[in-house]
Every structure is written in structure tokens, then in C-alpha cells.
Write a structure and sequence with these properties.
The complex is a heterotrimer of chains A (about 350), B (about 160) and C (about 375). Chain A has about 350 residues and is mainly alpha-helical. Chain A is built from 12 helices and no strands. Chain B is α/β, with parallel strands linked by helices and about 160 residues long. Chain B contains 3 helices and 9 strands, in the order H-E-E-H-E-E-E-E-H-E-E-E. Chain C has one domain: Cytochrome-c3 Hydrogenase, chain B, CATH 1.10.645.10. In chain C, the strands form 3 sheets. A 3-stranded antiparallel sheet of chain C has the order 1-2-3. In chain C, strands 6-7-8 form a 3-stranded antiparallel sheet. In chain C, a hairpin with a 2-residue loop joins strand 4 and strand 5. In chain C, helix 6 runs antiparallel to helix 7. Classes of the chains: A mainly alpha (about 350), B alpha/beta (about 160), C alpha+beta (about 375). Chains in contact: A-C, B-C. At the B-C interface, strand 3 and helix 3 of B face helix 2, helix 9, strand 6, strand 7 and strand 8 of C.
């Protein structure tokens, strides 16, 4: 409980658990609103147009308007769908991405659940999304949805392997799977972040290429994991209409939408934790209080959310076989090589506590 | 190559099947041929070295009131000359051999001519309506076409 | 023994089936109300059957009930994103039938309009092709520039989409004073944006990988199917009506007929068809720059040569190079004020008929790319 200030405030009772569980939910909701606005505004900036301008000052209330619109839309359940699966799949998908928030830290004073296999846990629950998409795609009784669901299953399962390899490498560097431990082993300024090899003597720069490869493998994999362009083939609106969410409308569609944005944050937070020092300030102990840590963590994560949005409006979509080619024949060998290099580095590094 | 020399060539090759060379005033000169042997004539036009009409620009069905007709506009990309071939068939027995094996582009053009005029292209693989609904009745571009009162319960004249 | 046999029977009963998928009539990437009946083996397309006619408006039947001038607005509605170009072959055909000579200035104006319209149409083609591949941003860049062209057309004719501007024998009214400078400003902007699109879309590795070696159309197939326009030239066939049978003032201009070269992949793939459109925009810019020299400052009565009565007798097949390809009209007149028959040979109709033959064996995502590279307009296919 040392990493949860709620317990200091209200003591170790049921209220503390309830509040701890509620804060991520509020955070996700607020974050989704900001991310939707960000998506709209960044898209309009990229595309040389204004974006929403009528709702509030410069259109800042647009996400609220969208939420209200989705809430009051008719919730259509088409005929001949498999009703239980059809109704449950958006929630399965959202549960998957929201469950990951249990271990995503905000600052050294607030980690909802500090478990010792945090990284592994995030990875496990984010695979939930595959089940949700496959359920939604199959139960919709629509050929496009079916194609989207199958595409998504193939894509996400394939991309988890190189991603798992990079997570393993990080675990080797930090000598732990606990998110707190990983972040703590990166403290002491920007030079000690894992993107720069973590703490260690100066000859760690010899291992930089491996870490850069790992970073790219993980980031590209995370794009595929969240079904964002250039890997949005499960949705692929110009090919298979809407993919797995073709038949969804109203609040159920909003849940898919919500889950996508929540997933974006989860993978960005993981990049932050694994490579960019988590909540650590880039200046060592300077500006490293709990509130500042919150600021650092959120800004690092949001930076990656921004990159994902930016990429979406810049790149075309790849084809299914090319996607498989990239993961199995390019990313996987590279990830293996990088993993070997990092393992070597972790063996030689004198600063790692064995 | 001028149309007269092409006409001479065709006449020498197919004598009786080539009917006439029409060069009325204000008209593009055209060659009327008999519908029976149209496929061989077209193959000859396409493959002969100095004619080489490799490009079927247009195929139009026609209604001449007494008879139906098909007009082929050919062009040669290699030799840069053009020619018009005409075929006439009687209305009650409007069968023309299909040339969709000679130029694949004729496939859809012939379907359109069938759809609009009811000209039957013999040997066409898939002679069904193309622009009109598959269950439409009558051939709309014929001069004596009466449009139906209703189609599937929808009033047609508006 | 019996057990083994049972297993064999069970295995034989595992039933695989090809999936029939309706792409369209309501689908984001069919560019209109086209319905493709696709047979799929997994993701591989084994057969495509196009069903057209959802937008059939009886163009040819209407024409038989209209006077020759009333036909012009209907012709606008064939290829509704290049209406100016549509009017040109019809006007030329009627002029040839009636033996009217049109002044050089009007010819130059028509040439500029046709080329501006070619740019606008190719912009849409490249933009939607990019969007089919999933790149949304170049779409808006190109539409922003197309707006400038539409503004010029609007000042000329009053319409933004359907112009009814080029009449048999002349024009609807004279150009406005700053027309020439506007056209040159468009040329400048188009070149600028094309460079941007080249960097953002055409040279993008993902885009290249998506479009090369997809929908390969060998030259002989392209000719046999009578494809035209960039679809034909993408296969390396040098056929452009502007050069082959020059009309308007095209024989006086110096421009190149762009043909596909198989730059990245195989000759005649989707990439070639698309890149030909990019190059043609540049050639159109060149033509406009040369054509403005043929427009003297002094105004003239552009309606002077429009005949009072259009009653041609005779028949003609008239054609022009539209943005999509060779647009031809077979006009038959019998000396009355209404045509006996007008047959429109629309390029998209002919180009689409090749789709089943070049899209078999590719994936469903490639089918969309191939369809986008052919660049069809349903208004013209269904007439």
C-alpha cells in the first residue's frame, strides 16, 4: 500500500478500494474526451482545415456532443444476430482495455494495484480485446464483420509475439516484471531511461541499436494491437466497410470506440513505463515530486497517443499479407536479435541487482 | 488507308458478304455487310497486317423502323485509321453473330444492344440485360416501344 | 479399420465453401452505386461479377425526345465530375455535321476548359485512389485545389458541377476578364500541391507496396477490351485522341502523351495507372500555359456562330479524350430538330468491363485498389 495515497487518507477499508477503483474510470472517461478532441483537432491540423468550430470555444465541447449523440442514438440489434454474444462483445472489449488500467501507474504515490507481475498482467488482459472483436465479428451475422473479426484475430495474435519479446528484454534489464520496479530502476535522469540502456557505465552505448530496435518493434506492434492505421485492417473502412463493428450502433458502438481509445492510452503508458522512465522526471531529482510525476507520466503517454493519431492521418493502410509479412519475417527476427543483445547487456551490466 | 481500299480488300476476300459502300453526303462513309459472316469479317479486319483494326471503339444498336441494325466503329491504334461497319437484320428475326470473342469489349456493348433493342447476339456467353433491371419487359430504345404502366407496383410514367 | 474409415468420412464432410460477398451498391469504395458480386476463397477473390444500372437515367431515350440543344445538359450528367469535357465531343460532332467553323479564340477557351476539367477529374481520381488505400489526408489537399477550378467554372457558367457552357457552335457566354490569370494561378497551385501529394502519397512505401503488381493489365488485353484514357496508357499503349486524331487546337501544342513504364512493379499495374494521372496533370498545366497565348484580349461574340436552327442530316461518330478516356458519341440525324439516335460510348463503361479479368486471384483489399485505379464514374456507366 506504500504506492497508494488513498490508503493514507481513508485508511485500509472498503472505501479505499472503491475510490481506488473509481479513479481510473474517471480518468479513462476524461482521457477519452480529450483524445477524441485531440483526434479531431490533430486531423484538421494535418489536413489543412479547421475541424469542429461550432461547439463551444474553438469546438472544445465537440467530444461531449458526440457522447450525447451516441447515447441518444437508437441501439439497433439486427435480426438474426446471435443476441447474447452480440450484446456482450463491446463490453468484453472494453473490460479488456479497462482491466489494464488497474496496474497503470499515475505517480509514485498512486498506483491502483501494485502487483509483482504487472507487465505480464497488462499483456494478458489486453489480449481480451481479440475475443471481444472476434465475438462481435462472428455474432453480427455479416460477412464484412466476419472478415474483420478474423483479420483482427490473426493480426493481434501475430503481433503479440514480437511485443512479448521486447517486454521480456525489458524484464531482463530491470530484473523484474513489476511495473514499480521497472520504473524505479530507471530513476536518476533521462540518461538512465531504458531507451538509453538504463543505468550503467558509458559503454552501454554499444547496445543502443538493440534498444532502438526493441523500441520500434514494440511501438509498431502496439499500433497493430490497437488497430490503428497503418494496421487498421480489421476496420478497413474502404475495404470491409467497418469490419467487426459494422452492425453496431449507439452505445454499443461507443463502447468499441471507447475501448480503442483506452487501448491507445494503455500501449502508450506501457511505452512510457518500459522505455521512457515512467513517472521519472528527465532531470533526476529536480521536479520529481508526486504531482510532477503525474505530469511527467501523463505527458509522456499523451505524446505517444499524439504520435498514433498523427500516423493515422498520414499513412495508408497495409494489406493483410503484408501485415503478416512485417510481423513474422521482419519484426520477429529483429526482436530476437535485439533480445539476445539486451540479454547480453543485462548480463554484463554491473548496476543491475542480481 | 482509305475506306475505298478497305472496301476493295474486303470485297476481294468475302465478295458476296460485303453488300455496299455507303458514302452519302454528310455521313461518315461506312461499309454494309451481311450479318451471317460478320465474325470472319471482323477477324480479318483485326488480324490482317495492313488493316489491323485492333480497337473496337463503339458498338451501337440501331432501330431503322423497318429493321434493326448494329453499327461497329473500328479504329486501329497501330495504323491510325478508322472504319464503320454496318449490319442490318429484320425485326422479327434479329439475330447477329456475337463478336465478343474477337474483341472482348463487345461483351458489354452487345449486352447493352440486346437490353435496349432486343438484338440477339448468337454465341454470346452471357446475354442478359445490363442497364435495365433483369426482369424488365420490352426493349426501350425501339421506336415502337410503349412504356409499361407500372413496374413491381411502382407507377412508371410520372 | 472401421474407426479409421469413420474418421475419413468425417474428414470428407468438413465442408468448405466459397463465400459470396456483395460489395455495393452501398459501399464506401465503389465510387457510387456499383454492385460487385464477389466470390471469395478466404480473402482471395476468385470471381467478380459487376452489376450495373442502378443509376440508369435513360440518357439515350431522353436524347431522342429532345432538340439538339436540349441534349447538352443531359450530356453534362454523364460523367458528372468532368462535365466541361463531356460537352466538347458533342459540340464538335454537331459542328462537323452542320459544317460550322468556330473561331480560334473559342477553340482555345474550350481547350483550357477541357484541360482544367482534366486536372479536376484526375485530382479526384488520385484522391479517391489514395483514400481506397487508406490515406485520407491527400484527399482533402486535392479537393481544396479542385475548389479553385470549380470557382472558375462557376464564374463562367453559374454552375459548380453541371455547366451547360459549351454549345454546338460556340459558348454560352464570353469569358470574364480575369479568366486567363485565374487559369494560370490554378496551374501554379496544382503544381505545388502535386509535389506535396507526390511526397505524401505517391512516394510512400506503404502506398507503393499496396499498388504495385496489383491488377496487372497487359497491353494486348487493354486494347482488346478497348480501354482508354489513363487505364489504357497505364499499360504502356500510346493512344491519346488528342494526339491520334487532334481536335480543337491540340495539334498546335507541345505536350507529351504519358504512358506507364512499370516504374516500380510490372507494366500495367495499379501504380502505373495512377502515376499516369499524376503526370497528365503536369501535361495539362503545360497545355494551359500554351493555350492562353491563343486568347487575344479583345472580346468577341462567342454566340455569333451558334446556329439558329440545328437540323443536321447525316451521321457521325465523334470522339474526344475525356479525363476517363475516349468519350464518343454516335449521332444520327434525319434533318429534323431531334436526333434519331445518340449513342454514348462512355469510357468508364468500357473500362469497368475489364475489371473481372484483372482482379481474379488478388485479395479483396486489392480489388478495391484495382477499382480505384480504373477510376470509374457511375453516372457515365449507367447513363
Amino acid at each position: 500500500m506504500e504506492h497508494n495515497f488513498i490508503f493514507d487518507l481513508v485508511g485500509n477499508n472498503i472505501w479505499a478500494y472503491l475510490i481506488t477503483a473509481t479513479i481510473p474510470l474517471i480518468f479513462v472517461t476524461l482521457y477519452a474526451l480529450v483524445a477524441i478532441l485531440g483526434e479531431l483537432k490533430i486531423a484538421s491540423w494535418v489536413q489543412d482545415r479547421l475541424g469542429p468550430m461550432r461547439t463551444g470555444w474553438k469546438g472544445v465541447l465537440q467530444p461531449l456532443a458526440e457522447v450525447v449523440k451516441l447515447l441518444q442514438k437508437e441501439d439497433i440489434t439486427p435480426k438474426n444476430v446471435n443476441k447474447p454474444l452480440f450484446n456482450v462483445s463491446p463490453f468484453v472489449m472494453f473490460t479488456g482495455s479497462f482491466a489494464a488500467f488497474a496496474v497503470i501507474p499515475y505517480s509514485s504515490k498512486f498506483i491502483p494495484a501494485d502487483i509483482n507481475v504487472g507487465l505480464f498482467y497488462v499483456f494478458a488482459v489486453s489480449s481480451f480485446a481479440v475475443i471481444g472483436i472476434l465475438m462481435g465479428g462472428w455474432s453480427s451475422n455479416n460477412k464484412y464483420s466476419m472478415l474483420g473479426g478474423i483479420r483482427s484475430a490473426a493480426q493481434m495474435i501475430s503481433y503479440e509475439i514480437p511485443m512479448a519479446l521486447s517486454i521480456l528484454a525489458i524484464a531482463a534489464m530491470a530484473n523484474s516484471l513489476s511495473i514499480t520496479e521497472i520504473i524505479k530502476s530507471q530513476d536518476g535522469g533521462i540518461w538512465n531511461w531504458f531507451i538509453f540502456g538504463g543505468p550503467g557505465p558509458i559503454w552501454k552505448i554499444a547496445f543502443f541499436p538493440f534498444i532502438i530496435i526493441l523500441f520500434l518493434v514494440y511501438f509498431i506492434g502496439s499500433l497493430a494491437e490497437t488497430n490503428r492505421t497503418p494496421f487498421d485492417i480489421p476496420e478497413g473502412e474502404s475495404e470491409i466497410v467497418g469490419g467487426y463493428h459494422t452492425e453496431y450502433s449507439g452505445m454499443k458502438f461507443a463502447m468499441f470506440f471507447f475501448a480503442e481509445y483506452a487501448n491507445m492510452y494503455v500501449v502508450s503508458a506501457l511505452v512510457t513505463i518500459m522505455f521512457l522512465g515512467g513517472w521519472n522526471s528527465p532531470f533526476g531529482d529536480f521536479l520529481n515530486g508526486p504531482i510532477w510525476q503525474f505530469f511527467w507520466f501523463i505527458s509522456k503517454a499523451m505524446f505517444f497517443v499524439f504520435i498514433q493519431i498523427w500516423l493515422r492521418w498520414t499513412l495508408p493502410r497495409v494489406r493483410v499479407d503484408q501485415l503478416m509479412y512485417i510481423t513474422w519475417k521482419v519484426m520477429l527476427p529483429f526482436a530476437f536479435i535485439a533480445f539476445m543483445g539486451i540479454a547480453f547487456w543485462a548480463m554484463l551490466n554491473p548496476t543491475i541487482i542480481k | 488507308m482509305t475506306i475505298e481500299t478497305i472496301y476493295e480488300r474486303l470485297k476481294k476476300e468475302f465478295n458476296d458478304d460485303i453488300l455496299s459502300l455507303n458514302s452519302e453526303a454528310n455521313c461518315e462513309p461506312s461499309i454494309s455487310v451481311d450479318s451471317e459472316n460478320i465474325v470472319n469479317i471482323m477477324l480479318f479486319l483485326r488480324d490482317e497486317g495492313d488493316l489491323k483494326f485492333d480497337y473496337l471503339a463503339c458498338l451501337s444498336g440501331m432501330d431503322y423502323k423497318e429493321s434493326l441494325g448494329v453499327v461497329y466503329h473500328l479504329y486501329s491504334i497501330a495504323k491510325k485509321h478508322r472504319i464503320t461497319i454496318k449490319v442490318n437484320v429484320p425485326k422479327d428475326n434479329s439475330i447477329v453473330p456475337s463478336i465478343s470473342k474477337v474483341w472482348r469489349t463487345a461483351d458489354w456493348h452487345e449486352r447493352e444492344a440486346y437490353d435496349m433493342f432486343g438484338i440477339i447476339f448468337e454465341g454470346h456467353e452471357n446475354l442478359i440485360r445490363i442497364l435495365n433491371p433483369y426482369d424488365w419487359e420490352g426493349y426501350p430504345l425501339r421506336k415502337d416501344y410503349k412504356q409499361p404502366e407500372e413496374y413491381h407496383g411502382l407507377r412508371v410514367p410520372y | 479399420m472401421t474407426e479409421k474409415r469413420e474418421i475419413e468420412i468425417d474428414y470428407g464432410q468438413v465442408h468448405t465453401e466459397r463465400m459470396r460477398l456483395n460489395v455495393g451498391p452501398q459501399h464506401p469504395s465503389t465510387h457510387g452505386v456499383l454492385r460487385l458480386e464477389v466470390e471469395l476463397e478466404g480473402e482471395i477473390v476468385t470471381d467478380v461479377i459487376p452489376h450495373i444500372g442502378y443509376l440508369h437515367r435513360c440518357f439515350e431515350k431522353y436524347c431522342e425526345n429532345c432538340t439538339y440543344v436540349q441534349v447538352v445538359p443531359y450530356i453534362d450528367r454523364l460523367d458528372y465530375i468532368s462535365s466541361m469535357s463531356n460537352e466538347i465531343p458533342y459540340a464538335l460532332g454537331i459542328e462537323k455535321l452542320l459544317d460550322i467553323n468556330v473561331s480560334e479564340r473559342i477553340q482555345a477557351i474550350r481547350t483550357i476548359l477541357a484541360e482544367l476539367n482534366r486536372i479536376a477529374s484526375h485530382q479526384i481520381a488520385v484522391a479517391t485512389f489514395g483514400m481506397d488505400a487508406g490515406a485520407f489526408t491527400p484527399f482533402l489537399y486535392l479537393f481544396r485545389d479542385r475548389e479553385m477550378i470549380l470557382d472558375v467554372f462557376e464564374r463562367l457558367s453559374g454552375g459548380r458541377l453541371l455547366y451547360n457552357y459549351i454549345r454546338p457552335g460556340g459558348l454560352m457566354k464570353d469569358i470574364y476578364p480575369t479568366f486567363v490569370s485565374d487559369a494560370l494561378a490554378i496551374v501554379k497551385q496544382v503544381r505545388e500541391t502535386n509535389q506535396e501529394v507526390q511526397r505524401l502519397l505517391i512516394d510512400n512505401k506503404i502506398f507503393i507496396e499496396r499498388s504495385i503488381n496489383v491488377g496487372i493489365m497487359p497491353p494486348d488485353i487493354a486494347i482488346n477490351f478497348a480501354c482508354s484514357g489513363p487505364t489504357l496508357r497505364g499499360s504502356g499503349v500510346n493512344y491519346d485522341v488528342r494526339r491520334a486524331e487532334p481536335y480543337l487546337l491540340y495539334d498546335k501544342f507541345d505536350f507529351e502523351v504519358c504512358v506507364g513504364k512499370g516504374l516500380m512493379g510490372t507494366l500495367g499495374d495499379s501504380y502505373d495507372r495512377n502515376i499516369v494521372r499524376m503526370w497528365e496533370m503536369e501535361e495539362s498545366c503545360k497545355i494551359i500555359e500554351q493555350a492562353v497565348k491563343f486568347i487575344p484580349d479583345a472580346s468577341e461574340d462567342v454566340r455569333a456562330s451558334i446556329p439558329k436552327k440545328i437540323t443536321p442530316k447525316g451521321e457521325i461518330y465523334t470522339k474526344a479524350e475525356n479525363p476517363k478516356g475516349e468519350l464518343g458519341f454516335y449521332i444520327v440525324g434525319d434533318g429534323k430538330n431531334k436526333p434519331v439516335r445518340i449513342k454514348g460510348r462512355s469510357p468508364s463503361f468500357v473500362n469497368l468491363s475489364v475489371l473481372p479479368y484483372i482482379s481474379r486471384g488478388y485479395m479483396i483489399a486489392d480489388l478495391i485498389i484495382i477499382l480505384g485505379s480504373i477510376d470509374i464514374v457511375l453516372g457515365e456507366i449507367d447513363r
